[in-house]
Amino acid sequence: MANAERVRVRGLSIFRPIIWGNSATLLTREEREKVPAEHTHKWTVAVRSATSAPGSDIVGGADDLSHFLKRVSFKLHETYPNPMRNIDKPPFEVSETGWGEFEVHIKLFFVPESGEKAITIYHHLKLHPWSLSGEPDSVPPLEVAQKAGPIHSWQYDEVVFNDPYQNFLTILTNNPPTPLPHAKTNGRTVPFHHANPTSLEASKGGVPEFTVLMEKDEAERLEKGKKAIIAEQEKTRAMLIAREKELERLQKMLNG
């Protein structure tokens, strides 16, 4: 039986949706008295299931991922004590305070039954809102940021297991992911591409949530972007052909 369980199911792919990213808020005056003087924000970086629990203020996290994730390692900026944080049970997250944005290296380790190698993903820790003054890297005034509410920066992805071992396939099928809602499930949901203080919802403290409709909208935006790139390529190609013909004509005139 053990050997049979270690047989791969060829030609089959099974995926699990996950999100990774961070949420950040400004520290209150009282909180700043308990941290280093230069620290301005508290933040949590995490790897979670894509679907949010009903009524939750947390982005994602409705499902326990420990049936396929054994460990998640977060490599923080070297200025933090013990910058390599290994989390061996859910929630797979790290909370800290700080003042600057930096790239977090996140490594996913899978359970032994999967037979899968660890993978590394990257996330730019986001503390400040996008495009508040029309400049993507501008930091808003304190009073503006305080009214804006939390900053959210999350990425949706799907971990794909190709030709899984039979016993691992059984584990996965016994732990199906909660389906994404078709639309927002709470009155404070904010589309991710609008999750900044310039949006009305964010100013009311909205919480982003991934939905089927959002996934569809994103696919449509990507398709529109592809078509725009193809059209630009065709335009450039036509211009080059025209210039080559003009060059050929001038060369004939010179050789005359």
Automatic annotation (TrEMBL):
All copies of domain YEATS, residue ranges: 8-175
GO CC, alphabetical: cytoplasm; Swr1 complex
PROSITE patterns named in the record: YEATS
Alphabetical list of Pfam families matching this protein: YEATS (PF03366)
KW Transit peptide (keyword) present: no
Any one Gene Ontology BP term: DNA repair
Domain-level remarks: The coiled-coil domain is required for assembly into the NuA4 complex.
PANTHER family in the cross-refs: YEATS DOMAIN
Assembly behavior: Component of the SWR1 chromatin-remodeling complex and of the NuA4 histone acetyltransferase complex.
Job of this protein: Component of the SWR1 complex which mediates the ATP-dependent exchange of histone H2A for an H2A variant leading to transcriptional regulation of selected genes by chromatin remodeling. Component of the NuA4 histone acetyltransferase complex which is involved in transcriptional activation of selected genes principally by acetylation of nucleosomal histones H4 and H2A. The NuA4 complex is also involved in DNA repair. Yaf9 may also be required for viability in conditions in which the structural integrity of the spindle is compromised.
This protein's name: Protein AF-9 homolog
Organism lineage string: Eukaryota, Fungi, Dikarya, Basidiomycota, Agaricomycotina
